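User: Hi! I'm working on a homework problem where we have to compare a predicted structure to a textbook description. Could you give me the structure for the chain below?
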Amino acid sequence: MSCKVLVADESLIIRKTVELVLSDGDYAVESIGFGDEALRIIKDNVPDFVLADTELAEMNGYELCGAVKKTPSLKDVQVILLIPAVKGVDEEKVKSAGADDYMIKPFEAEELLKKIEIAKTSKDTITRLEKEGQQFRDKLRRAEEKAGRINNDLLSRIEAVKESEGTVSRLRDELQQAGGKIDKLKEELLGKTDVVKESEDTIARLKNELRQSVEKADKTNKEFVEKTLRQAIPQITGKILDGILEEDLMAGVKQAIKKNMEKEIPQRVEKAIAEEIKKIK
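Assistant: Happy to help. Predicted structure tokens:
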């Protein structure tokens, strides 16, 4: 794609010279002799380069350059000021206007081509650097967004850690309280153990006393039964004998039996009493 060049110079000779020199290259050249008209053309059909005569009528080259540089849509346009040799170069004025470069009139064709090539290279470099700068800014923006997300994640984790520390601290306090309760329960349990031991000792003592009482009661009961039975022997013997004598026997037989039974019955009763005493034991 050819580069568009606008030549704004009051001299027709300069305009035609530029058109002739650049015609052999890849350039599309347009020329005008008035500054205000040049600005209108620049806005309507934005060129890549502008060669502006500092002695233009209506709007000189410095003013034209300043107007171009102040317009955002024309920020990429390269402006080269054409300064008559008789006027001399005011570096401060060139810088203040925002010019990219300048040439002294009259100039040689080679100098013009060199300036145009430098401006073109500068423009390409600026475009590349701006593109790289935009890419860098995009990367920086993404990096900042990522850093923001990481920062938010870290803050969330820090908050979670703080909450965990709070939970751990609370659990530690609860554990200490539980330990205190356990110690208290141990003390109470030890106290109850002593009571249980005392109760066991009391029960053992009572069992022993009960056993002794039972043994004493058994002995007493045994003695009472034995005494009672022995006291009842004569009565029992008499009743048995009376029952037997009521049988229809001969008087002699009755007498013999009676004598015999008086000896035998007491023995049987005593034997029965002995068996009863064994049962009681």
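For your comparison, note the following. The first strand starts at residue 3 and ends at 8. The helical segments are 12-23, 35-44, 61-70, 91-97, 109-245, 251-280. Good luck with the assignment!
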